[in-house]
Structure formats: structure tokens, C-alpha cells
């Protein structure tokens, strides 16, 4: 009885590892969007097409041009947020609160 339970537990662990192989591969390869891939794997992995597409996504590399564009955009957004915070803080210090001007910037 104990041996049967151990075999079933081992098979359950092996099945989970096989089911989440795309997520494990993506994590080991250092993909940017592991969480999104793992979510897709968890929700659609029970279908063969969903599991294979998640595995392809985990193994497929992003193009260097796309990664460079994303990094530039993130750096630009951080710089804008920092500049906005500095301006807002300077305005709050030198202008009475009733006359403070709120500066907003549209997202890019």
C-alpha cells in the first residue's frame, strides 16, 4: 500500500515537471517574460498546441533589435519619471500649495 502511494506521488511529480517544462526552460534561459509564459503554460498547457507553443516561446530568442528597442524605451520612461519627480518636488518647495502647478506628461 505504501509502495503504491509512493509510486503515485512520484508519477504526479514527474507529470508536473513535464507539464511545466516550458516554464522551467524559460526560467533557466533567463527570458524577460517568464511570468507571462508560465501563465500561458498553466492555462493552455493541457492542450497539445498550447504546450508546444509555450515550449517554442521558451526556446525562441528575442531579436537583439527588439531587446535594444525595449531597453531604450524603458530607460527613456525612467528618465522622464525622474525629471517629472524633480520638477514636482521643486515646485512644491518654492510655491505655496494653493498655487502649485501640476505637470503631467502623456505616456509614450
Automatic annotation (TrEMBL):
InterPro entries (alphabetical): Phage_imm (IPR016410)
Organism (species): Caballeronia sordidicola (Burkholderia sordidicola)
Name recorded for this polypeptide: ABC-type Mn2+/Zn2+ transport system, permease component
Lineage: superkingdom: Bacteria
Ranges that cross the membrane: 6-22, 34-59
Keywords: Membrane, Transmembrane, Transmembrane helix
